[in-house]
Inverse folding.
């Protein structure tokens, strides 16, 4: 069977098959014989890998092995340190010749790879619900998080289905359909929103809170029905005595819904002085102390009220009126993870939780956002069934991401009829939507092979399948109506239309989802949320800073992509985003308030991503930096040359014991590296970490480490030196091919939900060349990835077209 | 062949013997050709562990002398109606709590109570303890029930962050670990517990549950049809995914089948709670009611329940104690403070007695559900003023069908490992383990 004509930039000669036509002149095998074969021969098979019998004139027969040779040589991982090496120019010339011959194979043998059926992960599910029903749900409480594969939580291979998981999806479908329709049988429930325990509440907490307030929180709450709801606030308590903090003075609390004031409370000031009851049981005769302690135990008991609300999602906030008479953002007194856990050091109270309960006396909502999305017609006796079919047709088309027929609608309509008979039109609709959300057509990204397709052949995806791939890549959600319309008409395959749609989607606010998901997982900075710097060493680190670290990098990345900057600018941009908390951390003056704004960076050490505290934090331990962690991170995520795992039973570095003179981390590491086995990899890893040593584990600049001066200089295998962040960045820019290839491979992995395989290597190289030709601009890089064969096409069958390396060699 | 169905209940035999002699189960006591499970000494069906923090006002807890209980001690007064099912124990020692390197005594108590293994002291996510005794039971019983176990509490269920003496909160806020690295967060929201037990039916009312079952069925049928419509144009890996999906649907179908069978049982009608009640006693009662329902429907047979987290500073103004619990527990032996501490201890016990009362009233087999349940009530600190982990206040309630003989106060040799109790209770549940933590034998005297 002839391959479908592949996309333009990947034109391949028509005759696909194993028999390779005359390839370009093969590279000289002498290099392999001289430098590699000593270990990688059929007898020794070092690392399970033999180059005996690998014929460079038959690249198609050995593509997988040869791609490995390319990676190892190009990134300088092989030959290992201490062994004779070809000089760099010779090695690169050999690599280029090999790449050329493999690229030629790639043109003759089409293999776009195959993405297995892909279950919607939690992020995609939540987004799809929002886009379908205009309804915000609390995904984290409804569904478990997804295990990442290859570093990304949308990896199709890893997204499995278990009975427990399926039960959660079904329960979610029930709850969501009730919420969306506004089922009056919904029972009152209470939901608690909590302020992170170690968030600072001494300034305005976020852009969702009004100016002139401090502390508190804003939560997006979905009110299921029109009706009455109760709101209850609790204040933060001291861990030891369980008393409310900061009750010496009177404070005012404002509760707002979508920014308009619904309630004001005053609290505090009724008992002043230090409360003995925190630490001891108060003697019987100390009446005043008893009274004060009791007050501090129960003062927030009456922070409760009821209000009538409309169905839908609204921002509910509670915060203190900032009556300190000072401008926003100046910390009154900082709290830390350590001190707040033991004593009542905060002079100000903090909000602990907002509890919203209801609905009471709820009535069916008339015009909630989700009902507007669902009930596009009004049923009358005569037209009820017509209207039901119309609603189901519209929603199912969006949910299933394709035109639907009666075959799709009929079973849902039957479920609707049963519900209609039991509880009326809305009930019927709710039941049908519940079923729709449980359907495989919604829960899975299904791509189906053409009839009678032969294994090993490949085909171009239908426009509708392509539309789904696009929207899950760029929006982490389902297509919108425009994209579906274009795809249904078969217009999406036209290059101009495809380009127009991609640009439109990238410009849409929904594209931020892709940007945040990609940067957070590529750089692993999502781990900021679980990193715990040692509170004894970093008493200033708090939850407010933690959020700010992640937000800085997300905002920076988004600004880069939206401005269509160069991939290289991620490394060298001289601006970033900060709010007061982050500026305080970096030691940048004159930035006030919780709002993030673009800020010029004047210190070249801080340019680009390598100066972001998020990156520096997640590559450190709780109590010290990790040169190895940072070096490994650089090799993996910037240079695409991840080191192998360390051998078992390596003793950890000796910690300073406080008795003998402190040794610098470098001295301790050099002791460790004296071992030749360790040195093989660590001569590559460590030099990539040392230049960042002036950044402490939380990313602050420092001149010494536990008293020992910092020495950020490292020596590379070729003898050249890197003496700090500026030199390290320059190293990446000098090796931009490696850096760009790494970004492209990560983007490929996220976009497709599968990692690049050996047969994708020619595509990746083409994408790198395309990127260079387009000045490395984001839009061009994303577009050429979307136009590439792996994105546009699919192979039939699970096995690669070219035989992979023999099984005995597979475990490299 | 003549098979005698006559057999002697084990207790009638033992009654005539010295109370301290334990006898092996004699063949004569087991009826011929009848499975062991149906005899007088059959294993208990369910387990509950109830934990209270900050030690105990011991003088109100401890009976004046060993042997038969003349009166129920003041702390346990609410259990007086069930005196014959109350077995008080003295002398047990949680040595592991003393062996933890670092952290406060409170973390050490809760963190070792059901493992009797010193845990790794850390404030980070790298917690390490051991599988707890309740989870050993859960692993066995989960073969027959929908849920392996329930972990319940009346405080926030956070297990991250640092709590007592810089220990991870995992050691103070839960007593249940499914393996050494997995502390099980305790659920404090009755609504969440209800949903775990009864799904989205909204009520335990039979009609409501039946209606939900019907809806679930129609959706599962729908999914199965939809799957059948997907033709074969998918690859091997794709088929695997769809098979996984179909298998999951089948599994849910089986669960619904079970639920349907259970639906005929008479259950008290309980509506889905809306959230956490403000009032402590209301909250506790609701959680105890839900636990009783879970036992009654056989949705689970194993539960752990913290009446307050360890080192809790909750004050109980509603019973006239506005002192924070933890500071009060350092009473320096002042009578007034001890009395107030006792009030808290007694108040906690009352919440537990509500459950005991419920189960006592529900018939099961020849007796009540209580007869077939074994409850362990206690804490990992004895006198709160000194924080010692020996001579712990421990009460065993129920277990009559398994041969546990109440109405007594038994003292073991000072320093007897608490773990010996755990392995003995597991024996009573029909789950034989050789050893748990620092156990060095079985406890005698549970059955007279």
């Amino acid at each position: 069977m002839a391959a479908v004509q592949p996309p333009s930039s990947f034109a391949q000669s028509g005759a696909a098959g194993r028999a390779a036509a005359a390839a370009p002149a093969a590279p000289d095998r002498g290099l392999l014989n001289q430098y590699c074969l000593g270990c990688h021969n059929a007898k020794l098979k070092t690392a399970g890998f033999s180059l005996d019998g690998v014929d460079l004139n038959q690249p198609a027969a050995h593509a997988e092995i040869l791609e490995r040779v390319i990676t190892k040589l190009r990134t300088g991982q092989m030959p290992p340190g201490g062994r004779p090496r070809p000089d760099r120019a010779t090695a690169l010339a050999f690599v280029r010749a090999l790449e050329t011959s493999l690229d030629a194979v790639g043109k003759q043998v089409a293999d776009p790879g195959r993405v297995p059926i892909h279950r919607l992960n939690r992020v995609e599910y939540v987004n799809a619900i929002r886009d379908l029903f205009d309804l915000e749900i609390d995904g984290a409480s409804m569904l478990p998080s997804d295990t990442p594969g290859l570093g990304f939580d949308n990896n199709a291979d890893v997204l499995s289905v278990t009975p427990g998981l399926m039960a959660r999806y079904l329960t979610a479908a029930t709850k969501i359909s009730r919420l969306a329709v506004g089922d009056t049988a919904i029972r009152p429930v209470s939901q608690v929103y909590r302020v992170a325990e170690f968030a600072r509440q001494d300034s305005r907490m976020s852009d969702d809170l009004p100016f002139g307030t401090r502390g508190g929180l804003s939560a997006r709450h979905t009110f299921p029905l029109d009706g009455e709801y109760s709101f209850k606030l609790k204040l933060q308590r001291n861990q030891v005595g369980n008393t409310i903090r900061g009750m010496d003075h009177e404070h005012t609390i404002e509760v707002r819904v979508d920014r308009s004031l619904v309630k004001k409370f005053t609290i505090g000031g009724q008992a002043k002085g230090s409360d003995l009851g925190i630490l001891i049981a108060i003697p019987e005769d100390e009446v005043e102390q008893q009274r004060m302690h009791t007050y501090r135990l129960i003062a927030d008991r009456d922070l409760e009220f009821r209000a009538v609300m409309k169905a839908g999602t609204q921002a509910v906030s509670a915060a203190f009126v900032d009556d300190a008479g000072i401008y926003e953002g100046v910390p009154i007194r900082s709290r830390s993870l350590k001190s707040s856990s033991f004593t009542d050091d905060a002079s100000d109270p903090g909000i602990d939780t907002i509890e919203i309960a209801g609905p009471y006396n709820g009535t069916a909502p008339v015009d909630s956002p989700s009902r507007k999305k669902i009930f596009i017609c009004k049923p009358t006796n005569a037209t009820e069934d017509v209207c039901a079919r119309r609603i189901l047709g519209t929603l199912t088309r969006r949910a299933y991401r394709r035109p639907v027929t009666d075959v799709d609608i009929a079973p849902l309509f039957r479920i609707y009829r049963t519900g209609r008979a039991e509880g009326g039109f809305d009930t019927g609709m709710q039941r049908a939507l519940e079923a729709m959300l449980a359907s495989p057509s919604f829960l899975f990204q299904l791509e189906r092979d053409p009839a009678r397709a032969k294994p090993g052949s490949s085909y171009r995806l239908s426009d509708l399948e392509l539309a789904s791939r696009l929207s899950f890549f760029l929006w982490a959600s389902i297509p919108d109506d425009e994209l579906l319309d274009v795809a249904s008409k078969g217009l999406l395959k036209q290059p101009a239309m495809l380009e127009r749609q991609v640009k439109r989607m990238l410009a849409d606010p929904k594209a931020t989802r892709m940007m945040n998901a990609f940067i957070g997982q590529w750089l692993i900075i999502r781990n900021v949320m679980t990193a715990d710097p040692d509170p004894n060493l970093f008493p200033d680190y708090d939850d407010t800073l933690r959020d700010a670290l992640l937000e800085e990098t997300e905002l920076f990345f988004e600004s880069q992509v939206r401005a269509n900057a160069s991939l290289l600018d991620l490394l060298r941009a001289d601006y970033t985003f900060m709010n007061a908390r982050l500026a305080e951390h970096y030691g940048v003056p004159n930035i006030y308030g919780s709002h993030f704004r673009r800020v010029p960076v004047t210190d070249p050490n801080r340019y680009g991503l390598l100066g972001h505290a998020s990156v520096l934090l997640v590559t450190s331990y709780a109590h010290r930096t990790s040169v190895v962690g940072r070096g490994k991170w650089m090799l993996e995520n910037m240079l695409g040359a991840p080191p192998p795992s360390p051998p078992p039973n390596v003793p950890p570095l000796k910690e300073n014991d406080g008795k003998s003179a402190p040794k610098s981390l470098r001295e301790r590491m050099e002791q460790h590296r004296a071992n030749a086995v360790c040195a093989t990899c660590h001569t590559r890893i460590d030099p990539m970490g040392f230049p960042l040593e002036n950044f402490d584990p939380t990313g602050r600049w420092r001149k010494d480490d536990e008293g020992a001066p910092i020495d950020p200089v490292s020596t590379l295998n070729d003898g050249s030196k890197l003496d700090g962040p500026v030199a390290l960045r320059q190293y990446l820019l000098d090796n931009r091919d490696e850096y760009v290839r790494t970004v492209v491979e990560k983007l490929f992995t996220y976009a497709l939900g599968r990692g690049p395989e050996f047969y994708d290597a020619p595509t990746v190289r083409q994408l790198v060349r395309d990127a260079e030709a387009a000045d490395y601009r984001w839009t061009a890089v994303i577009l050429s990835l979307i136009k590439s064969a792996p994105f546009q096409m699919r192979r039939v069958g699970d096995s690669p077209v070219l035989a992979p390396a023999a099984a005995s060699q597979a475990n490299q | 062949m003549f098979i005698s169905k006559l057999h002697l209940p084990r207790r009638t035999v033992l009654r005539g013997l010295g109370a301290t002699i334990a006898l092996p189960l004699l063949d004569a006591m087991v009826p011929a050709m009848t499975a062991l499970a149906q005899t007088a000494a059959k294993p208990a069906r369910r387990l509950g562990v109830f934990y209270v923090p900050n030690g105990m006002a011991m003088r109100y807890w401890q009976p004046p002398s060993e042997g038969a209980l003349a009166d129920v001690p003041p702390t346990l007064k609410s259990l007086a109606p069930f005196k014959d099912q109350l077995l008080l124990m003295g002398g047990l020692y949680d040595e592991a709590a003393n062996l933890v390197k670092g952290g406060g005594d409170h973390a050490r108590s809760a963190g070792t109570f059901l493992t009797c293994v010193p845990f790794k002291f850390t404030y980070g996510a790298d917690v390490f303890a051991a599988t707890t005794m309740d989870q050993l039971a859960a692993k066995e019983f989960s073969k027959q029930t929908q849920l392996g176990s329930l972990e319940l509490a009346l405080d926030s269920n956070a297990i991250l962050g640092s709590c007592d003496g810089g220990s991870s909160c995992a050691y103070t806020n839960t007593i249940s670990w499914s393996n050494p690295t997995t502390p099980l967060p305790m659920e404090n929201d009755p609504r969440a517990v209800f949903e775990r037990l009864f799904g989205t039916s909204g009520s335990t009312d039979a009609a409501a549950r039946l209606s939900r079952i019907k809806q679930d069925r129609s959706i599962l049928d729908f999914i199965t049809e939809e799957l059948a419509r997907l033709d074969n144009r998918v690859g091997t890996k794709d088929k695997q995914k769809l098979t996984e999906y179909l298998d999951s649907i089948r599994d849910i179908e089986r669960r619904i089948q079970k639920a349907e069978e259970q639906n005929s049982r008479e259950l008290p009608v309980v509506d889905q709670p809306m959230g956490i009640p403000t009032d402590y006693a209301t909250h506790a009662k609701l959680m105890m009611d839900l636990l009783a329902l879970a036992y009654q429907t056989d949705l689970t047979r194993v539960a752990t329940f913290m009446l307050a987290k360890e080192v809790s500073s909750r004050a109980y103004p509603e019973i006239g104690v506005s002192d924070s619990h933890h500071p009060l527990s350092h009473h320096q032996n002042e009578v007034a403070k001890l009395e107030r501490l006792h009030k808290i201890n007694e108040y906690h016990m009352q919440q537990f007695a509500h459950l005991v009362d419920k189960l006592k009233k529900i018939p099961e087999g020849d007796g009540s559900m209580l007869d077939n349940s074994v409850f362990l009530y206690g804490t990992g600190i004895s006198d709160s003023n000194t924080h010692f982990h020996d001579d712990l206040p421990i009460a065993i309630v129920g277990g009559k069908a398994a041969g546990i003989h109440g109405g007594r106060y038994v003292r073991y040799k000072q320093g007897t490992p608490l773990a010996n109790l755990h392995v003995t209770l597991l024996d009573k549940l029909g789950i034989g383990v050789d050893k748990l933590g620092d156990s060095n034998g079985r406890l005698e005297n549970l059955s007279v």
Notes: Residues 771 and 781 of chain A are 6 Å apart (CA to CA). Chain A has a mean pLDDT of 87. The first strand of chain A starts at residue 118 and ends at 119. The two ends of chain A are 34 Å apart (CA to CA).
